Amino acid sequence: MEPLNSIYHYYLNVLDIAFQPIVDIHSGELFGVEALLRGTDTIGFESIESFFDHLYEDNTLYSFDLALREKVIKKFCTIDSYRSLKLFYNLDNRLFEMADFSKGNTSRILKRHGLDHKSMVFELSEHNEIVNIDHFSGLMRHYAHEGFCVAIDDFGIGQSGFKMLYHVAPNIIKIDRFFLSNIDSDPKKKLLARNMVQLSTLMGCRVIAEGVETQAEFIVCKEIGCHLVQGYFVARPTCDCAQLRLQYNDVSAIALNEKRISGDQNIIRKRLEALESVSMSDSMELVVDKFKTNQELSLIPVVDKQGSPVGIVHEHRLKAVIYSQFGRSLIQNNSSNFSVLETYVESIPVVDVTMSLETIVEVYSLSDSAPGVLVIESSKYIGYLSARVMIEAVHERNLIRARDQNPLSRLPGNFMINEHIAHSFDSGQKSLFCYFDFDHFKPFNDHYGFRNGDRVIVLFAELMHKILLNNYFIGHIGGDDFFAGSIIKNEAMFEDFCTLVRKLIYQFGEDVREFYSTEDRERGCILAQDREGVIREFKLLSVSAVIVYKGEESSINSAEQLQKIFVVEKKNAKYSPEHLRLIID
Q: Which of 34, 83, 433, 447 has the smallest C-beta neighbourhood within 10 Å, fewest atoms?
């Protein structure tokens, strides 16, 4: 390899490296950093791309990039707890066209700094067209076989993205910013991104939501199953390594609140099988001994140095080794591929313990042959869920929901209502909550009987379904008390909801008249005893509502506060001309 001339040594000294955090989307823990080049403008180039174009045209791309890797790795080693992190490094795919390209150089640099191969993640992008996909994928497989992690950057924007996913078998996928920008208000982007996440997860890839700038985008990325997140919402790139943190509170605060309220998570944790894992660096003899010692063991999870799952070793793939004397000698032969654990590792879906059961089952169902899923928390392996256990977990959750469902209205009861309220609070987004209470229900129930009282309750439940459709969560608190709510994306949605509630109040007042006698309808009231036994007039049934709009900076921060508002304001709603109170905070 030709040594760098003086001008390129000057460039190398002037240029600096910024690191941008990549964190676990569920816990906010630092997973790794992406190295980003800074200072190309100070040496006379309009952009980083134009600088690398110059290197390519001057046939110095590989030699300079190799020197740059040394500089990046050296600075990476100054980060606190760097040994537990991954370094993401962008590769220009034209490197492999350079005549001086050779193998083993990065391994030697890492060895000098005492780093493991899995610490390095090579990012591949389609910014420069990949002319020969077979040649390119072959070289990438070489990097993977040497023990490096491989990531596809800007996934989804180029023509070769899915070919690369097929041929390269990457460890990590980074969804391009285009699909995540305003994903909270663009259903088409959400659908496309969700499908990318599902496909990547099915193939055993971790997924990074790249370029996330707002909390709303972050929440949707988390909802569709992304494992990791990078972008201005977490932190901007920095050249000062001291500014990097091991924990990012904007992310962890959301995750902490969700852990408090997730009923699914409790079910998952209770049924999680804590299978003991092995490391990629462990010997095959150790793995074989584990299977021979425990005859009931059918698979063993495999993790990397950071504790993140890589896949599983299934007992059926090792039968020839376990039960054959010749096979045993193969694994003891260090020059044979049969002695390398990675030879036997199979990819299976990886899910986070905070995901909903629906999402976990959906991810698993896309796989034809996986026996189950590996479960992580803060990007670390914590256990295994088999297909049978997932079915049992879903059955248990459905039983809980069935018991919670009101037998009369068939609407979710207090368990699901409380979960909805808690999720809305913990999302940090604008939300609306509506409490409905019948007016003069007791006199009607006493006068016309409880069967007609039940029919009125069913009528209101049916009207809620008809008018609010499936756009809002609706529930039955009990008796003549009902609930509706939703996270809202914009002010127009709030106005629409208020219009629908007014329509619901009016329609119920009209339809419920059919339950009265002609005489009571014409009189506009019924004659019945009050609580003291005195005969008096009671108006016809109606319903009152209290709508609470909680903004992002709202002082309402708990379900208890919300309940107190409902208790106070429902009295004011009953005396309001339109039977409605709006509380905006």
A: 83
Q: What is the pLDDT of residues 147-172, one digit of tens each?
A: 788 888 888 766 556 766 776 678 89
Mean pLDDT of 61-84: 94
Residue 1 lies in a domain: no
pLDDT per position as a tens digit, 226-274: 999 999 999 999 999 999 999 998 787 765 555 444 567 888 998 999 9
Measured CA distances, 258 to 25, 255, 269, 378 (Å)? 12, 5, 15, 14
Dist CA 359 CA 222 (whole Å):
11
Which tokens go with 78?
Answer: 């100054």
- Asked whether residue 336 carries a pLDDT value surpassing 60, the answer given is no
Task: Estimate to the nearest angstrom the gap between the alpha carbon of 81 and the chain centroid.
Answer: 25
* Among 48, 107, 115, 117, CA closest to 79: 115
Angle at which helix 414-427 crosses helix 249-261, to 10 degrees, equals 180
The tally of domains found in the chain comes to 3
Q: Are residues 372 and 447 in the same domain?
A: no
Q: Is residue 55 part of a domain?
A: yes
Q: What is the DSSP secondary-structure string of 449-511? A: -HHHHHHHHHHHHHHHHHHHTTSSEEEEEETTEEEEEEE-SSHHHHHHHHHHHHHHHHHHHHH
Using CA atoms of 168, 85, 175, 210 in order, give the dihedral in degrees to the nearest 10: -150
Q: What is the pLDDT of residues 321-335, one digit of tens each?
A: 666 665 556 566 555
359 and 353 Cβ atoms separated by less than 8 Å? no
The predicted pLDDT at position 275 comes to 93
Instruction: Find where tokens 């998952």 sit.
Output: 268
Mean pLDDT of the chain: 86
| Residue 400 within any structural domain of the chain | no
Q: H or E stretch including 190?
A: helix 187-202
What is the Cα–Cα distance from 200 to 221, expressed in whole angstroms? 14
**Nearest Cα to Cα of residue 317 among 342, 336, 335, 294:** 342
Nearest to residue 34, comparing CAs of 80, 68, 84, 85? 85
Cβ-proximal residues to 567 (8 Å cutoff; 6+ apart), any chain: none
pLDDT at 310: 87
Reading the block at residue 505, the tokens are 């109040």
d(CA 456, CA 453): 5
